Amino acid sequence: MKDIAVSSDVTLQQVTEFLWKEADLLDARDYDAWLALWAEGGHYVIPIEKDGDDFANMLNIAYDDGTMREMRVRRFQQGFSISSAPPADSVRTLSRFVIDAVEGDTVTVRAAQHVIEDKFGRQRMFAANVSWVLKITDEGLMIRDKVVRLLNSDGMLTSISYLF
Amino acid sequence: MSLDQFPAGPQPSDLVKDDRVKTPMYEDPALFDAEMEKIFGKCWVWVGHESEVPGKGNFKLSWVGTQPVIISRDRKNDLHVFVNRCRHRSATVCEVKKGKTSSFQCPYHGWGYGLDGSLRAIPYTEGYSTDFDKGNYGLKKLKVETFEGMIFASFNMDVEPLEDFLGNAKPWIKLFMKQGGGFPIKTLGEHQFKVPMNWKIQLENTTDAYHFPIVHKSFMQSLDGEATEQFSFLDDNDGWVEDLGNGHSVMVMMPELNDLDDEPDRPIPARFEELAETLRKDYDEDQVRRIVRAVGGCGFNLNLFPNAACSLSFFRILRPVSVEETEIRHIALGMEGGPEAANQMRMRLHEHFQGPMGFGSPDDAEVWERVQRGTKGDETIDIMVNRGLGLEETSENGLPKGDVSAETGMRAAYKMWKKVMEQ
Questions:
Q1: Domain tally for chain B?
Q2: ipTM for the whole complex
Q3: Do B357 and A78 lie within an 8 Å CB cutoff?
Q4: Which 36-95 residues of chain A touch chain B by CB within 8 A?
Q5: Tens of pLDDT along B32-64?
Q6: Range of A140's domain?
Q7: DSSP letters of B51-80?
Q8: What distances in angstroms separate CA B258 from CA B168, B171, B283, B393, one per listed residue?
Q9: Which residue of chain A is at minimal alpha-carbon distance from B216?
Q10: Cross-chain residue pair B351–A61, CB shorter than 8 Å
Q11: Are residues B113 and B172 located together in one domain of the fold?
Q12: pLDDT reading at A4 higher than 70
């Protein structure tokens, strides 16, 4: 087991606080603030296949560079998408944080996530293993990459009107 | 269960009129059971694409209506489709979605079946008397035929030849397959989602251009000007929807993209210019143009009764689960052996619109669910499919042809529904 506090300047507490802040923004659908958490150059990915990470050469549920992330958020915000106007309400819990690596200004971290959504008087649940590559910057942590591996990613899903 | 007679209550001719259908069409469980027997139990049903079972020993799980089936390619390269149910005590013999094997073995008592579904071996045979004949206990087979790489199966061994059933849809299928851009078509993966709706709501939607600018406004807003122009087919006067017979129909949204080999010198759209530049490193200009046109996809939705569609650039497959529950698969297509950059762009375009988090499908799913929820209100009110009636022309096939927003394709599907249900 790696002792994070000793091996780098970033602590599990700092990482956890950052990712909880992200989760809070997503449940609140404060998407502009969420976009501002991102560093450039990375992807927000929700793969279909359980294995493999060559996402560019795989069909994904979402494979968003910065432009796509922004378009996705605008779609939610403009109010013309019937599925997201209004969207399902969501409550998410993040736990079981593990920092896999701290190299230079990069932190690789993963966690368990449960999201429960509510719409039309019915609730649906999504469980996922989520991993992030975070950048340590002068302004604090930022997200470079985020990969959400839904437990049922290659099964029958339902339409989703918010972000994981 | 056998339904020698149609369930009590409204009969097919009461449920489907020329211009409308009755609300129980979406919500009567007895009607659903009858559909599974008379439509999914007797017609040709789309089960897969040959690229999903490319070589000897490859298999893929699929469905015919509510029944689980296995598509298998044997050592002679012949395709088989059989029910995924051991002939002993009914356990499924395969729960791996796709792969390669030499046999299928039941996990319960070890009965082993060959790639052609025949029963090959059973453990402890001494427990059966000498008149036990393994030849009587192969996996239950369906009739299988293919057209242009698409695999269809039927429980009805006396079903008409597949090509007769596809009929006027065949030339459109051939046009659709041109989006291989000179390479064979292969599946690149699929999005799958379930919607609380009757399956016929999806069947209707594939030929519904009328909803596009309303439901997909947020998708349109995410396109560049040129693409927005292309998807504004309701404002153009050149599209149409035509009944192709046997419940099939085609909705032509962008006629200039019907035949991808037409006008090869057409300018490359700005959104594909970067891709074209990448391709120029490995391909001559003619090939680059052909591949780029193929990446953009076709300009029509071909609806194949009862469960498949060749929709612009992908396969849309529906599976009825119960009267108010339907599973949808959006299968992405690409070029076998084609340029990586082109297949990547095909996948990115697919992700943009399709699937549980696409910019289009969730809005479709929402309105489909709203249809199902709305039918709970006064079920004496009919569901109207009369748009375009009285304005239609006769196609060269002698069948109705309406403007792109006409509900001609829905009427075509319901005409076939009534015919099959009355048989």
A1: 2
A2: 0.93
A3: no
A4: 46, 48-49, 56-63, 68, 71-72, 74-75, 78, 80-84
A5: 999 999 999 999 999 999 999 999 999 999 999
A6: 4-150
A7: GGS-STTEEEEEEETTEEEEEEE-TTS-EE
A8: 15, 11, 24, 20
A9: A81
A10: yes
A11: no
A12: no
